[in-house]
Write a structure and sequence with these properties.
The structure holds two protein chains of two kinds.
Chain A lengths: L2 E6 L6 H11 L3 E6 L10 E4 L21 H9 L4 E4 L1 H8 L6 E3 L7 E9 L15 E8 L3 E3 L2 H9 L3 E5 L11 E5 L5 E4 L17 H14 L1
Chain B lengths: L6 H7 L9 H12 L5 H10 L2 H4 L4 H4 L9 E3 L6 E4 L4 E9 L1 H6 L1 H17 L4 E11 L5 H21 L3 E8 L8 E11 L14 E6 L9 H4 L20 H17 L4 E6 L4 H12 L3 E5 L12 H6 L5 E6 L4 H10 L3 E9 L3 E6 L2 E7 H5 L13 H8 L10 H9 L8 H4 L10 E3 L6 E5 L4 E8 L2 H6 L1 H18 L3 E10 L6 H21 L3 E7 L3 E2 L2 E2 L3 E10 L16 E5 L10 H7 L11 H16 L5 E4 L4 H9 L6 E6 L15 E5 L4 H8 L3 E8 L3 E6 L3 E5 H16 L4
Helix pairs in contact in B: 7-8, 7-10, 8-10, 10-13, 19-20, 19-22
The chains are: A alpha/beta, B alpha+beta.
């Protein structure tokens, strides 16, 4: 059985949502870890939640990457263990250099909260093996800084190495280049995405399309362990 | 600011008149309460604490008309927020607050700090905020400045609530010329708590510490409470120093720290209160008054972010994200450690003292020494003159306005594009509606619905205010506001629990406006009694005028309901083809104050028919029983735009349509706004039971079909409209009207 850490930064606010998705819905062993902690020893995976760490001051995720916990997150990523960031978590992962590119202010200049269709581009990852390739799913987004940008070269590399995992289908809600909604690192163990799979795991809330992301991770994590 | 004024100079030059303290009040304070002339700082404290915003001196006599108790009410008005029992040892805490004046002057910060203030009221009670709502009333969108104000107000609400991680799940937005110079921005917050955690704003126990926690004090918002208690005019159009600046990140930290303290160390705490209007003075004086204590504060210890602040400025600053605690002696360091973890200031600024005096020191001098009660309890209540508005008498003598509708499809298309009716998704999409992953129904539904984790129950919540009806008939309009909130709660499958309110009116010194206040409260109170929904908290916002033009009297009702079993949540959308459609409640020729009247006439006129509140209550109760029995698949309340708009809205979510026999109605009645009506759908196999139980209160009007068309057969007209086309008009109207044309 995996043990998963959910990091809480000052200003995180989807920490509870990730915790509940893992604990209550997936029945996984999960613990909150403070940004002040310096170790993630004993955890099999770490997740960075959405929210407004440090009030998004300076730049989304720019201050959180300097917190005490981040060296431990980097260590986990380098050790090949699963590292997942959604929304502000994705922004922190790019700021920390664990994922290429950056998230800019939405091209519509406004915060946008709605459910959007996505295409699963790569199902050969720790996080997406329970989906079909090219499957269309619907996940909620809720962000002001979700426009993914990178150099042409980086974008080409991402495509070549199958690092683009989710793409916005039908409409691009934030101006992300090549409709990118989620990417992994080259090794495939670090996933960052703007949509919120943890908000789509219960029928009572109207959407369960995010559940298989966690199921994929648990299945792959357990098989590997 | 004339810091050096002596008490004698104050008496002579009367600077307090600019702070909204009257000469009569000043003399009463000097002669009766103090027996001496108040000094500069004291005069400032009195003017803030005796403002309408803090003291309710004008509205108190009429607020007493509201019922505020029933078996479920654990805390009524008087504390930060009201508290209602929702079983299982849990309670729901809620309150609404207006931030009209700041939002009019500086829409972004005004709206943002409105949200911040109401959230502090909730978590100071010991509850975690779980949802926010709003009620926004703007001027017309052909004014480019108003379009900017709408954008800024919505961004202010979104930026604050989104950063706090509290979903904004419901609200209303209306547009009328009367709000052109005075926007209404009312924010409501709903919190959840265990009953054992209820806190009070109380300071007691000689020697106990008065601790200041949260953000530092600056010069922002000085005299905000007084500002909210005076009219707008062109001369004081830029009172920017009276508007506060918000920092939601700071508030998020403050909330987590306060909730950690309350939930884990309640024994260290005597009381806790938000520093809202009139900042330190109102929170400390009210807490001392509640605890019947004396209090001594040293203002040099107050964390400050600006230098050279006077005692007057420190006491009256409305800097945001601050709280005042009364902590048991010996636990000051323990409390400080908790706030240290969140990088927040926590400083002991004073002690509870013997006696009943309120004493302040600053720069080595005693700057205030007055009885606590003189600030809080001795405020002169003002008997206000009132007089029935002349326009009401005139309306009774005029014949009722009767619209002629030849082409109901065309009228429906026009109504769906009215900004007050059209989809406000372009605005609500800027709010995080799902954070905390408990939102069962968000914006676009009759009520927002939040499930309660660990239980199979939920809360339904709505805000409703329609100044147009209150303007035409304050008493019936007041009844209608509560009735609309109630039908929204019923439509979502919930049992109504209680209400909060924001009472937004013009200058109460005008006898006609005071009459409106009095009679609309009477109407609301009547409805609250019959529906058993007591008023557990609320807020009064008077002086909503610009250059002498008052807004429509606009009481906003925020109602919360309990869904005991989440299986009984009823959607607002009809998606099952084959279901039967019923109209609940009788439809009359009620066009006075309707959107139809405004659209066709450009002006409102007429009288409102009396409401049979008892009958409405009874059939809504019966309908609720049918919902619990599983005999209802969808429900939607009928409000602006009447039955026609309600039917279209019910069909915008899916692929279904309706084929309805409405030959009992004229084409005009399709848009009548008779209060207390709903449309519901019922599965074919439940029809017999449903009809037997509902009797003549439910009228069968047709079927949900599997074509996306709305086909209506009226007495004098037919219509068959493609719902995809109608939805396009409904969705695109507001984005289009908000776009700058010049």
């Amino acid at each position: 059985m995996m043990k998963i850490a959910v990091v809480v930064f000052p200003g995180s606010n989807c920490d509870v949502d990730l915790y509940e998705a893992l604990h209550t819905v997936c029945h996984v062993d999960v613990e909150y870890v403070s940004h002040r902690a310096t170790s993630l020893d004993g955890f099999d995976a770490v997740m960075l939640p959405g929210g407004f760490s440090y009030g998004d001051y300076m730049r989304s995720g720019a201050i959180a990457r300097f917190t005490n916990i981040m060296p431990a997150v980097v260590k986990m990523a380098h050790a090949g263990k699963p590292v997942f960031g959604t929304c502000n978590g994705f922004q922190i992962l790019t700021e920390a250099g664990l994922l290429p590119g950056a998230l800019k202010h939405n091209n519509g200049q406004k915060f946008v909260c709605k459910t959007v269709p996505l295409e699963v581009v790569n199902n050969q990852t720790l996080f997406t093996s329970e989906y079909q390739v090219h499957e269309r799913i619907n996940l909620p987004i809720a962000h002001a800084d979700g426009c993914y940008v990178a150099s042409q070269q980086t974008l080409d590399q991402l495509e070549d190495h199958h690092q683009v995992v989710f793409r916005y289908a039908d409409e691009n809600p934030n101006g992300s280049l090549r409709n990118i909604a989620g990417i992994t690192n080259e090794q495939g163990n670090v996933l960052g995405m703007m949509p919120h799979p943890e908000r789509a795991v219960e029928a009572i809330l109207g959407n369960t399309d995010g559940l298989r992301l966690f199921k994929s991770l648990l299945f792959n994590g357990t098989v590997k362990a | 600011m004339e810091q050096a004024m002596t008490p004698e100079e104050i008496k002579e030059q009367k600077p307090y008149l600019d702070w909204s303290l009257t000469e009569k009040e000043y003399n009463y304070i000097a002669d009766q309460l103090l027996g001496r002339l108040p000094n500069f700082t004291e005069t400032g404290l009195f003017s803030a604490m005796w403002s309408e915003h803090c003291s309710y001196k004008k509205s108190k006599p009429v607020l007493r008309l509201f019922p505020n108790k029933n078996a479920r009410v654990l805390q009524g008005p008087g504390e930060g927020a009201g508290v209602v029992d929702i079983d299982d040892g849990q309670a729901v805490v809620f309150k609404a607050e207006s931030h009209n004046h700041p939002t009019t002057v500086e829409p972004y910060q005004g709206a943002a700090t409105g949200v911040g203030g109401i959230l502090r009221d909730i978590f100071s009670m010991g509850a975690r905020p779980i949802a926010s709502l709003d009620s926004l009333h703007f001027g017309e969108l052909d004014d480019p400045q108003m379009r900017m104000k709408v954008a800024d107000t919505v961004k202010g609400i979104g930026d604050y609530g989104n950063c706090m991680g509290i979903p904004t799940v419901a609200g209303e937005t209306t547009f009328d010329p009367c709000y052109q110079g005075n926007i209404l921005c009312n924010a409501m917050s709903v919190g959840l708590m265990d009953q054992k955690d209820i806190q009070k704003g109380k300071a007691a126990g000689i020697g106990n510490a008065v601790m200041y926690v949260g953000a530092k004090t600056g010069r922002d918002g000085i005299h905000g409470a007084t500002f909210a208690s005076a009219d707008f005019s062109d001369e004081n159009a830029t009172q920017r120093s009276a508007v506060q600046v918000g920092d939601p990140f700071m508030e998020k930290l403050l909330m987590e720290a306060c909730l950690e303290l309350i939930h884990n160390h309640a024994d260290w705490l005597v009381g806790i209160q938000d520093m809202g209007a009139a900042g330190i003075v109102s929170s400390s004086a009210e807490m001392a008054s509640e605890g019947k204590s004396g209090m001594e504060l040293n203002l040099d210890l107050v964390p400050q972010r600006e230098t050279g602040m006077s005692a007057y400025e420190i006491m009256l600053s409305e800097s945001q994200e601050r709280m005042l605690l009364c902590v048991n002696k010996g636990h000051e360091e323990d409390v400080k450690k908790i706030f240290d973890k969140y990088d927040l200031d926590a400083v002991t600024i004073g002690r509870i003292t013997e006696g009943h005096d309120y004493v302040l020191h600053h720069d080595g001098q005693e700057v205030c020494h007055i009885p606590v009660a003189s600030l809080t309890d001795d405020v002169l209540e003002e008997a206000s003159e009132e007089q029935k508005p002349a326009r009401l008498q005139k309306a009774q003598d005029e014949p009722a306005w009767q619209p002629t509708i030849d082409n109901p499809a065309k009228t429906l298309r026009q109504l769906l594009q009215r900004p007050t009716i059209a989809s406000d998704e372009v605005l609500t999409q800027q709010y995080d509606t799902q954070v905390r992953t408990s939102t069962v129904a968000g914006p676009g539904s009759d009520a927002g619905i939040i499930r309660i984790r660990g239980y199979h129950k939920g809360l339904a919540m709505t805000t409703d205010g329609n100044g147009r009806f209150v303007y035409l008939d304050p008493e019936i309009g007041g009844q209608m506001a509560v009735t609309e909130a109630m039908t929204n709660i019923i439509a979502s499958g919930a049992e109504p629990l209680a209400i909060t309110d924001c009472l937004n009116y013009g200058d109460p010194n005008d006898p006609e406006i005071f009459w409106e206040l009095h009679h609309s409260i009477q109407g609301m109170a009547d409805a609250c009694r019959i529906f058993d929904t007591p008023v557990i908290s609320g807020n009064v916002s008077l002086y909503n005028e610009n250059n002498g033009n008052a807004i429509y009297p606009t009481p906003m009702v925020g109602m919360v309901g309990l869904i005991k079993n989440l299986d009984h949540v009823i959607p607002s959308f009809a998606t099952h083809a084959g279901d039967a459609v019923y109209l609940i409640g009788k439809t009359g020729d009620d066009y006075a104050g309707s959107e139809l009247q405004k659209m066709l006439n450009g002006d409102l006129s007429g009288t409102l028919p009396a409401l049979d509140l008892q009958a409405i209550h009874e059939y809504c109760q019966k309908l609720h029983q049918q919902m619990v029995a599983g005999n209802v698949t969808a429900a939607h309340d009928i409000s602006e735009g009447g039955l026609g708009v309600a039917l279209a809205e019910m069909l915008f979510q899916g692929e279904t349509g309706m084929q309805l026999d409405l030959r009992s109605l004229t084409a005009a009645q399709l848009f009548s706004e008779t209060a207390g009506r709903l449309v519901v759908t019922v599965p074919a196999d439940a029809r017999e039971t449903f009809e037997n139980e509902m009797g003549p209160d439910a009228q069968y009007i047709g079927q949900v079909t599997n074509t996306h068309w709305l086909e209506l057969h009226l007495q004098n007209a037919e219509m068959n409209e493609n719902l995809t086309d109608l939805k396009k008009l409904y969705k695109e109207a507001l984005p289009c009207q908000l776009k700058s044309k010049d």
